[in-house]
Amino acid sequence: MPERTATETKQFTITRVLDAPRETVWRAWTDPDEAPHWLHPHRVSTPREHVDYDVRPGGAYRYTMISSDGTEYPTVGVYREVVPPSRLVMTWGKPGDAEGDVPVLTIDLDEHGEAGEQTLMTFHLAGIAGQPGDAGVYDGWSEAFEELEARLGG
Description:
The protein has about 150 residues and is α+β, with helices and mostly antiparallel strands.
């Protein structure tokens, strides 16, 4: 039996029902003008000038989150799968990470509710273990999704 790598065994999933149509949630994930409004945990920002997306298979993206003390958290990745408005698969790492060692994000967006006025978002991260209350990656993404919910509701 082949040995499993850490990337294959460390993973978590977060699901949310969002009060917005699927196309609106898709735009939140793919429009660089939307990222500053939600793509960060609480008390951290993502300035628009630090966001660049090339949303297509093989296209790259980057964004940098900045904490209140000025610490920068640069993030880069490559889109592996882009199926508007339902699925994104992309690598997620830091500049300089080896391609084979970076986590992979999969975001599935499904229509939800009687008239599709809501979206069931399933976010899966393979390559990092996480759980509620970890004060790490899981909680960071969970807080970002709270920011997204506020953006969509406002």
